[in-house]
Design goal:
The chain has an eight-stranded parallel β-barrel, surrounded by five helices. Helix 3 links the parallel strand 7 and strand 8. By secondary structure, it is an alpha/beta fold. It is elongated.
Length: about 325
């Protein structure tokens, strides 16, 4: 249930009203202060609450029951966009952020060199895989702890916040200095992992699963937020369909739908969505036009010899050209 308070409601009135709701109905009251209004979100068993009795309070503007099972991620409870600040970059709220780097960290020279190049082109985050979930057990699995150390070296060299994927709760200690923890598509419904990262005070980039619905994605975000961490970034990375030309099918409609249903920032991954490097540019432009807050793009200095996903990686030179085009289109779209 959400309760919108009238403009001019004082802090003492708000506190007294919230206490009465908690004591009388045994619910949790979350408060969101927006630019235009203050919204109360009631979590718990609200079916016995008399809406008319609540509406009769002098400070209440409107009352509405929320049917969706996700509450904290729901825009109805939090009308304003959530903006997540990391190292000076702000994800959400209207400005485009570029997250770029290789699929896998391979060496210090590779990751530092790429980090410097993508930063020059306007990237504000460095991505790189230290732990790599692979379909085949014989494929390169990443440098693991060493990979994280190399990412941190690249961060020292460039100042770029790092984004990298976690695969197990047993690895949490290794991620203490990681700026943004990524939950990959295969782990989107690893609920124990979601609850553990929900206990951390750092942003989580949550990728939509290969065959998961929009609501299931938002419910996974709810797991993280319900554990205390509300710094969640949604990522559309393509879903599995009957089409075989591309690696996955980018659900571009998910971007405005996520933005309508939720207040959380939305990032698009055109690299995993397509699996084809020449599709990165048109899909990135489409994502930007659809309202994405950011793009996560795989960039490799030598794609043909990459240890993983070279076919969907672009070179630093191509990334530079793409970034210029994206920022130009962003200025045209958003004034």
């Amino acid at each position: 249930m959400i309760i919108v308070l009238k403009t001019g409601t004082t802090e003492p009135q708000l506190e007294a009203f919230s206490e009465r709701l908690t004591e009388k109905y045994n619910v949790q009251v979350n408060v969101w202060r927006g630019t235009q209004s203050t919204v109360l979100g009631l979590l718990g068993d609200t079916h016995t609450i008399d809406i008319e009795a609540i509406q009769a309070n002098e400070i209440v503007e409107s009352v509405k029951r929320v049917q969706e099972p996700y509450k904290k991620a729901n825009r109805a409870f939090h009308p304003n966009d959530t903006v997540i600040s990391v190292g000076g970059a702000r994800l959400g709220g209207g400005s485009l952020q570029l997250i770029a780097g290789p699929c896998s960290v391979e060496s210090a020279e590779q990751i530092i060199g790429i980090a410097k190049r993508v930063k020059q082109s306007g990237a504000t985050f460095l991505r790189g895989g230290a732990f790599k979930p692979r379909t085949s057990p014989y494929s390169f699995q990443g440098l693991r702890a060493e990979g994280i150390e190399l990412l941190l070296e690249a961060k020292k060299e460039t100042g770029l916040p790092i984004v990298t994927e976690i695969m197990s709760t047993s690895h949490l200690d290794l991620f203490e200095e990681v700026d943004v923890i990524q939950i990959g598509a295969r782990n989107m419904q690893n609920f124990e992992l979601l609850k553990e990262v929900g206990k951390l005070d750092k942003p989580v980039l949550l990728k939509r699963g290969l065959a998961n619905t929009i609501e299931e994605t938002l419910m996974s975000a709810e797991y993280i937020m319900a554990s205390g961490n509300e710094k969640v970034i949604l990522c559309e990375r393509g879903i599995r369909t009957f089409e075989t030309y591309t690696r996955n099918t980018l659900d571009i409609s998910a971007v405005p739908i996520f933005k309508k249903l939720s207040h959380l920032p939305v990032v698009v991954d055109p690299s995993h969505a397509s699996g084809i490097s020449w599709l990165i540019e048109p899909l990135s432009l489409a994502a930007l036009a659809a309202g994405a807050d950011g793009l996560i793009i795989e960039v490799h200095n030598d794609p043909p010899h990459a240890l993983s996903d070279g076919a969907q990686s672009i070179t630093p030179d191509r990334f530079d050209q793409l970034a210029k085009k994206l920022f130009s289109v962003e200025r045209a779209l958003r004034g």
